[in-house]
Amino acid sequence: MLELRPPDLVEMTEFLREEAAPVSPPEPLLNQFAHALLGLTLDEARYALRRALSVSPTLGAEAVPALLEEKRLLVNRSGVVEFIAEGGSMSEIGGLDGLKKWLLERRRLFDMRDSLSAEIVPKGILLMGIPGCGKSLSVKAIASHFGLPLYRIDMIEIFSGRHGKPEGVFVAACRMMEDMAPAVLWFDEIEMGITSTESGGEQGRIFAFFLTWMQEKTRGLFVAATANRIDLLPAEMIRKGRFDEVFFVDLPLDEERIEIFRIHLARRGVDLSGLNLHHLIQFTNGWAGAEVEQCVVSAVTKARLADRDVTDEDLIGIAAKTVPLSRTMHEQINHIRAWAFERALRASPPPIGR
Known about the structure:
Elements: H1 9-20, H2 27-37, H3 42-55, H4 64-76, E1 81-84, H5 97-111, E2 124-129, H6 135-146, E3 150-153, H7 155-158, H8 166-180, E4 183-187, H9 201-216, E5 221-227, H10 235-238, E6 245-249, H11 254-267, H12 289-305, H13 312-321, H14 325-328, H15 330-340, E7 345-346
Parallel strand pairs: 2-5, 2-6, 3-4, 4-5, 6-7
Antiparallel strand pairs: 1-3
């Protein structure tokens, strides 16, 4: 029995060279096109190339977004795998210095993956912690930092039954992603779909397959998983060897919140020179990053309606009226912290005195 896999990099490069004639893109650009189209069949690659030619008849660098857009449409057609086009960068993340340092070190190893033994090539990370503290943004930044495309597997769609039996659909999605490598694969809220083998049935078999697959998958695929309800994660998931590291993302510290305020204000074109953001520390104790962003959005909206610039009073007034999630879910957050205390590495340095 012969299993026909999608074309590899060599076959895809040769195919593009033939299809692009008489246009002859430079070899580095042709190699970039081939990397962008990995995982597609030859027919699908031909569709993508035609879209690129309609944008750039000479197949210049401006054709790459068109190739990626066609790939996004083809990949999203599966219904369970989503190509995430919008990226992020490390500069857009406030705090999480421990996570950033780890990624900077591991990127070099990942780039050298073909010359290293498989046991030291980065496999992936698990980000767990409090909702709204930047886990999803961090995954997007990882893809940009590694210079790789980002794909997300939707566990809800897999278990919906619309695409066939969940077990077969999940295995097919993972195999498909190996053909897309090199890439970053994102399992969002992984605890909602992959549970312990003790649960039995399809979920148990999916979990058993996932554990084996994480050990044996292609070295060009970096897995980034996020989880909120971390107490649902089985011990087999978080032990060393499945993921390279398990990070706990806590509520941002005082200086991290100020940094997050600066990032969101600057992103919306607000002049920071007239603002004293350190006044906000006492009003935003226990805030998550998502709550900081909404405070900025509300302040910008208020200022635009009044046709003036954002002021300290706008931010402080909104902050004073906001009840953070850490206050309404105090017991749950303490439970999450206690659970992760000895099981995960902090993504931010611990506050002084704690």
